[in-house]
């Protein structure tokens, strides 16, 4: 029973932490983001399974995570409110070639980050962007003028 | 200019809903910050805390965590400073020292070991006046153990109670 409860608590805590640290950290792999994502898994494993090295323990922990993932997915599918709470909302970063500074600041980003991402999608200048949207997954979508 | 499909300027550009406030996210960031601060302040253990019980015959000093987390391994230290001859120094440990714990070892090995109403009774024999006896108990908290455990330690000389130390340990999951 203990391992299921630990896995459930860990799952909720991870979702909470990933939501509050900001979505850009989910998709970018700068040095500090990499450290966070790599180390997090290892630290969580200790707390969930502790000294349990059994295959049963693995089944229980993985099954708990899987069931919670399905439950979250179902919840976000059925409830708009839950989706907003769990996944957040897309954010407009550039409108008609002009940066929306309030949203860039909220995500601890600057226009250079947008320009870098735009170049990766074959867009030469921010001026060419009609809409740039930071999606809930942390990726940027561009709509050209 | 209309926003892309499924987006609205009010929500996705201007963030006018109350739950989109930057202050809410900042407030939520206080949760991990508070955890870090509390951790540094030893709220979740496992820094040892030294407590002393003094009596005319002897002084008992215990150094062990009063806050810890399940699964942790640590050693508790017990020191008896005899002011007068203790013919049969005996330490009695409340059940909280063993319930939910794995006792990995004792050093030095007590001369006698027993149980009394669930308490552990360790006898160390003669401790001359002015001498010090130090005893280490190597413990591991079982992963499923949580909550408050009474860890009273009582020092006896034979059947005579010399001193008692009331301690608790709070174990976090």
Task: Name the descriptors.
heterodimer, A: 145 residues, CRO Repressor, 2 domains, four-stranded antiparallel sheet, 63% helix, elongated, B: 173 residues, mainly beta, Immunoglobulin-like, five-stranded antiparallel sheet, 2 helices, 14% helix
Brief account:
In chain A, 63% of the residues lie in helices and 12% in strands.
Please characterize this protein's 3D structure.
The complex is a heterodimer of chains A (145) and B (173). Chain A is an alpha+beta fold and 145 residues long. Chain A is built from seven helices and four strands; from the N terminus they run αααααββααββ. Chain A has a four-stranded antiparallel β-sheet with strand order 2-1-3-4. In chain A, a hairpin with a 2-residue loop joins strand 1 and strand 2. In chain A, helix 1 packs antiparallel against helix 3, helix 1 crosses helix 4 and helix 4 packs across helix 5. Chain A is elongated and about 55 Å long. The N and C termini of chain A lie far apart (56 Å). The relative contact order of chain A is 0.13. Chain B has 173 residues and is mainly beta. Chain B has two domains: 31 residues, no CATH class; 125 residues, Immunoglobulins (Immunoglobulin-like), CATH 2.60.40.10. In chain B, the strands form three sheets. Chain B has a five-stranded antiparallel β-sheet, with no helix packed on it. In chain B, strands 7-8-5-11-12 form a five-stranded antiparallel β-sheet, with no helix packed on it. In chain B, strands 3-13-10 form a three-stranded mixed β-sheet, with no helix packed on it. Chain B is elongated. The mean pLDDT of chain B is 93. The interface between A and B is medium-sized, with 26 and 23 residues.
